[in-house]
Amino acid sequence: MQAVRSLSLPSQVQTVLEWWFPRVKVVLGHNLLSVMLFGSVCMDDFCPAWSDLDVCAVLSVPVTDEQARRLSGLHDELESLLPGPLLEATYLPSSMAATAGSAGRSFDACHGERSLAVFDPIPGFYRLQLARFSTCYAGETVPFAPPTHDQLVAGSTWLLNRLRGAPGTQRAHELAGLIHETARMVVFWRDREFLSKGSALQREIAAHGQFADAYRLAVHLRTEGGAHCDAHIKKLRDLTRTMAASGPTLLESLISDASRRDENG
Q: Dihedral sign, CA of 181, 186, 192, 197?
């Protein structure tokens, strides 16, 4: 594998990558072709107290059972040792990068879960980021095929279902994340522009959007940090309950309008 790129990264991100990368090379060896960064760190939206670090490791062959076991232990060790952004990592064969929606034997270490299975671990809006807003950290740059329209709709449908269930039994941090995602989906389907979460929140606040109060709290939490979400649980529940009452209808209308425009060229 080629040397690590000289990138201007936040110090917290650099610390995590410098711990993780040499160890993952030992586990995967010459099968590791590339490490692609995406998400907030590539969209000038990284907030040290809030953001995760999104990584896609591209392999020449699928992860084996033994490699998955070792990778799982590596992620457990990383989360117990280092403060800073949570590393959300997907490990997949290179054939899956070129074809949107393809399934293959992949390992996913995201949201505290560990999964080794034959599936497509890249949701539509993650693939959009990998296709348009990713950076090669090590190895060779791997081009990702953009998502299909149906994949983007499916990703938004998943959000709609979560929104309908809010606040339910969701934790404070999950509710705050739901507010972030709603702002970004509103902007994407209405304006057909994919923004960082922070930029989408600010656009909706400036436009006095329907859920501006919720968006202002989300902006505050990005600075205050995810660890402080529990202190705002009552307000988060109240705001997401309000969003659940009309947000799904708004998003469904925006998605339907955008789909018709796409069909009509």
A: negative
